[in-house]
Amino acid sequence: MATAAADAIDFSGLIRPGDTVVVGQGCGEPTALAEALVRQATTDRTPAVGPITVFLGAVFSRSFEPEATTGIAFAGYGALGGAGRLARAGRLDVVPAQYSQLPGLFADGTLAADVVLLQLARNGDRLAIAGNRDYSLAAARRARLVIGGIDDRAPWCHGGELPPDLRIDLTVETSRAPAELPPARIGPVEERIGRLVAERIPDGAVIQTGIGAIPDAILGALSGHRGLGVHSGMIGDRMADLIEAGAVTNARKPFDAGVSVAGSLFGTARLLAFADRNPAFRLVPTEISHGVEVMARLPGFTAINSAVEVDLSGQVNAEVAGSHYVGAVGGQVDFVRAGNLAPGGRSIIALPATARDGTVSRIVAGLDGRPVTSLRSDADLVVTEWGVAELKGQTLAERARRMIAIADPAFREELERAAHPLLKSDRR
């Protein structure tokens, strides 16, 4: 394993034309390496770097802005953070795969990974993957070249220790503040949804949440709970707040007792300080963080996810708004199914009833060709600021009635007209 200075690395001798470069995501993005890659791949150099494709996950830096990356092709599993800006610019080619499938797709070569850039943290003489234990490790095992940025400001997390079979070909010493995702702004609608969801989560439940104002509001509303556990694909600042407030103890989990587990850190310096060398938190690989069979063994496992829209039958679109890709398949399918399978578990889809300042309903008659992220056969609870629809085990007609009841009142008559043939067939 060779070591170089960050400002001295020359990618032209390392990256070949046509290569796919996989870059670590979230708070584990190797920003110094990413910025050097963009700089060298988008300027006239001899020899040139590229053409290349960069595979991105959820990136929170400004390393890959559309106007600054001309000549680089981008692929990714969803439009989160900086990847969303690329998607809106028509620059992101989306792989619509479940998050849990990504390690296997890299491992068998279905998804290309020629070069992998990782962020690393040091604790004495021990190196760890900083901020993530995700698909990038499977990509690294397959790659021709793996470069690690060892950053003295990156969090060293239990569970992130470098696996013995992972080869790092070149390391670069860096000192950069990790990429951050600030907590979302919470308004009255999110607060109302947070309270409605929290009322349906018992003490002792094991929770999973995603990114955004709705999950953050729900976590805030759970501060009075006790004995909660955490098993999630990611955690952010407000999850750290909940843990440190004493609401989370993980005491009732049949495994990982006393420890909150997640696959990624998506937050700010506050979260990184919480996770750094904290024995009560552990990074886990994707097959555990998103493993349906694993989560189904957790009594009271409660999956909390959001959506772009939900139709009257319970179908969920979490990917596309209008003509723009704005989300991801992500881990929703895995978490929803685990919530349905776990003893006493629940699956909750929470979303505002409207978008665009109340002019568009997010409860819709049908998805009309837009993606079905989660199937209606997996539907359990759907929550808006107008109430809670219990869909599990209900007929299509009854589902329509319950979904209309939690739509914004301005759209209920329109939804009733659209559902009229279905409701008419339910002769009571």
Which characteristics define this entry?
13 helices; Glutaconate Coenzyme A-transferase; eight-stranded mixed beta sheet; 4-hydroxybutyrate CoA-transferase; 428 residues; nine-stranded mixed beta sheet; AcetylCoA_hyd_C_sf; alpha/beta
Explained architecture:
The protein is an alpha/beta fold. The protein folds into two domains: 2-174, Glutaconate Coenzyme A-transferase (3-Layer(aba) Sandwich), CATH 3.40.1080.10; 188-425, Glutaconate Coenzyme A-transferase. It has 13 helices and 24 strands. The protein has helices at residues 31-41, 82-88, 102-107, 135-142, 188-198, 213-221, 237-244, 269-275, 286-289, 292-295, 332-341, 396-405, 409-425, and strands spanning 2-5, 20-23, 53-56, 73-76, 92-94, 115-123, 126-129, 145-151, 170-174, 206-208, 229-235, 260-265, 281-283, 301-305, 309-311, 316-317, 320-321, 324-325, 346-350, 354-355, 360-361, 363-364, 381-384, 387-390. Strands 1, 2, 3, 4, 5, 6, 7, 8 and 9 form a nine-stranded mixed sheet that branches. A hairpin with a 4-residue loop joins strand 20 and strand 21. Helix 5 packs across helix 6 (213-221) and helix 12 runs antiparallel to helix 13. The longest helix is centred in the last third of the chain and has 17 residues, at 409-425. The relative contact order is 0.11. The mean pLDDT is 94.
Question: Secondary-structure blueprint of this entry?
Answer:
Blueprint: E1 2-5, E2 20-23, H1 31-41, E3 53-56, E4 73-76, H2 82-88, E5 92-94, H3 102-107, E6 115-123, E7 126-129, H4 135-142, E8 145-151, E9 170-174, H5 188-198, E10 206-208, H6 213-221, E11 229-235, H7 237-244, E12 260-265, H8 269-275, E13 281-283, H9 286-289, H10 292-295, E14 301-305, E15 309-311, E16 316-317, E17 320-321, E18 324-325, H11 332-341, E19 346-350, E20 354-355, E21 360-361, E22 363-364, E23 381-384, E24 387-390, H12 396-405, H13 409-425
Parallel strand pairs: 1-9, 2-3, 2-6, 3-4, 4-5, 6-8, 8-9, 10-11, 10-14, 11-12, 12-13, 14-19, 15-22, 19-23
Antiparallel strand pairs: 6-7, 15-16, 17-18, 20-21, 23-24
